[in-house]
Fold beta-galactosidase.
Amino acid sequence: MELSRRTFSAIAGTAALGLSLGGSSAMCVAAAGVPTGPPPGTPGADGRTHRVDFDRYSMIVDGRRVVLWSGEMHPFRLPSPSLWRDVLHKLRAYGYNTVSVYVSWNYHSPAPGSYDFTGVRDLDLFLRTAAEAGLYVTLRPGPYINAEVDAGGFPGWLTATGGTARTADPTYLRHVDEWLTAVNRIAVRHLYTRGTGTIVLYQMENEYANHVTEATGRDYMAHLYRKVRADGIDVPLFHNDKGRNGDWAPGTFDTGGERGRWLYGFDGYPSPFQTPPDWGYFGPGGIEGGSTASPETPGLIAEFGGGWFDPWGGAEFGGKGYAESRRTRDAAYERRFYLTNLANGIKIHNVYMTFGGTSWGWLPAPAVYTSYDYGAALDEARQPTAKLVPMHQIGHLLQSFPDLAELDRAADVSVGAPEIRAYHLVSPDTGAHVYVLRNDSPTDAVAAVPLAGTTVQVPVPGRDARLLAAGISLGRWTLRHSTAQPMLRMTAGRQDIALFTGRTGEETETALESPNEPAVTVLEGTADWAYEGGVLRVRARLDGLTRIAVTDKTGAAPLLLLLADDAASVRLWPRATPSGPVLVHGPALLRTAALRGATAELTGDTVEEADLEVWAPRGVSEVVWNGAGVRTRGTRSGSLRAERRLPGAGAVRLPALAGWRRKDENPESAAGFDDSAWRTADLNTSFSTTPVPAGAPVLFADDYGFHYGDVWYRGRFEGATGAGSVSLSYVTGTQGLLMAWLDGRPLGTHRMPVPDTRTVRQATWKATATFPLAPGSRSLRENGPHVLSVLVRRMQHDQDGRANDSHKAGRGLVSVAFDGASPSVRWRIQGAAAPDPVRGPLNNGGLYGEREGWHLPGFHDHDWRPAPLPNAERRQGVVWYRTGFRLSVDPATDASIGLTLRDDPSRAYRVQIFLNGWNMGQYINDVGPQHTFVLPNGILNTRGDNTLALAVLSDGTTPSGPATAELTLLGRASGGVPVTRVDYPGPVR
Ligand code: IPT
């Protein structure tokens, strides 16, 4: 029977009980002197000063322990600031309390001395949004970040400067200081210590493993430390050791005597096929490195693999697409590996990536393609995947049970199943026992866990893990044990709520201490119970949501016991508010919850039709969902439940792409093209690590200020009569190519060879393209003058993971030679025009169409000729296609839309995709594996007109495409966040 709202309120009104999350009002003092109480409330820019400390167990914020359960996302991989809020809401809802972010120097700095934090680069806005979403922030501004971005984050212009990067070289440090000054000026405005933001940790450098024992390395790190502190960053600092080697542990370099404010952190990307490693303090197999290097600081994993990046396709690289990363590092991987970390005492945990996003434009490092989905828990299209389920369960668990922030290793236990490894921990403060039971075999097994006088049988599926807790407080009740994993406890109104989770179909036993026999009512689902010897045992098979009301004889301490299978657990959304905790059940997402007087104001998403049910503090009687009042009734579960289900998302109709127009390019290949405005290649020296041949001019694009995308060369010469061939040496990143013309006639295309899998990591990506000139060929019959036109798709700069300046490897032409002649060639060079002030330096390369604004909305293509797809012509060079399309997505619907290109995979061509002038990535038809490109809302106008431009580069050996180009719906929800259009300027006239 459902009670009316009025009756419910009356009942609720009889009990005046504490509303705080966690319930227990008695604060115990921990062995280390830190009170174990509820974790500090939701962080925000609250204008108050805060203390951010740590001890060997955990971070301590305002005197309370907190486990940082963090997800990595990169604002620069989501070029639509409105959508940052969407991702941050999702992190918060799914149990993360922290977001970790790199800041990529190249994204903000088109030239020395020039730093841009506007528009899609608005770091200030990102940090504000993170604070509004209630997340702590770990800021990681490099200067080097790696991250599979161009030059590992170093700006293109740094490749043309002297001094060895990532050392104490003064020239390099001058540039570094300029960057840190710019980024720290923003960061200091968002420090949690000041109450103006939520930054609680700050990382210096990234996986700096190569000059650790040298003075230059130690001086560099000491310099960074001094600089960061001098800029006013007062939160704890750390570095992420690449291995678990103790590199940069406290005391290993000069931190100006501030030993206590430096943390040791490390990274780990264990293979899903290995046994989860013991990188913390408590591994039963002994020390495997990691946290043991720094016993006085809390276990800190700055990056733990949540997926893995995918390389380009083709036999050598073998990129298979991100479904594969998500399959091998699935939800069970997360339970096995991340619970092992917790069992090892890791208290600062960051999952790299949690939302991978898109390496749009020329952002990706050469080894990876446009999508940086990473197989992460939240996919590139912002859609939740099954991998969020364990994150949600563990994240909320850590925030609900402060016992887990301070654990010591306890006596090893034998669980009678050799395939199960058992970790046994105890809270020195509350005496609660925690077991992590991990099954490394492929078959299901049962652990027999000895607990105070009895043995509890805990099933652990093959290649999976679970956490078993005993003796933890559920408010006024104490848990003896549960074979289901605890996720949450809270006090809402007059009742305590405790939630346990597991896989569908599992038989569970939950035992509660109860000196007297309690009253038990099964409110929903099926469960049995028995009371004996002061213990209530509830047995239930997990299936959706099972609800059991337990009340002691006085009726004073009602407990709502919830048992949820995985699917049901991600329809339960706890949220702390200043007026007490709220639990929402039903919708696909809870974004925000605010209590105003008697009203619970909620925002969130639905995908299918959904129930809406709310547990809230006493006195709350009204519910508003996404701005509209919802009629509710009180339930026997102590909640308010909507009388009608919330509607699901409406249909989204996508138009077919039609009306294409095309225009052929590359006038630069014509003999008579006027290149007089191009830069003469007249430099003789370069800071590049690629040698410049003696006596030849420097031809690397970077030395002439062209740092991203394609570059053209035109070389004039005389006196080559009789030459049998011409050879062009060039350097690119992976998947680079060169195409050449002599006096306007195509000589051919050369693709940068991909070495076999064994040597690919050492490859220098330098090759020589030799084009035969038929003897007596018409063009070279005369002395000249002749013109060689060369287009190099130079791809991006290498990363500098080993700190050996590998980002300075040349890009573009190296030299030219003729067989049977030795003319001297006078070169001119042209790359990208001045960087787009809105879209940034990484948006464009130097194709003619890009220099002329063919990619921009508002460009006049009326005189372009209509060109229906599929195209199937054979031509060496560049052809552009443009069309427009109109969307009318309902404003209350968050539709995630992509562009999918498909063709016969033997066709040798590639496409740069421009949406409203924004470079959304590169499709390589005969390499793959990516076919669908996410078009983020904001860049995409979901209510109105859009301009799509495709720049197709084909090598002329096969017919070129594209064959089909269509819009694809990647997800939809009713709700979402308000989206502001990202600026999309057209051509300057
Ligand atoms: C580690 C880097 O710190 C990070 O930036 C990213 O490149 C990541 O790996 C891989 O995606 S580097 C480590 C795996 C050697």
User: Anything to note?
Assistant: The pocket of IPT is lined by residues 145-148, 206-207, 242, 267, 269, 303, 309 (CB under 6 Å). The CA atoms of residues 360 and 920 lie 5 Å apart. The longest strand covers residues 876-888. Residues 847-974 form a domain with the Jelly Rolls fold (CATH 2.60.120.260).
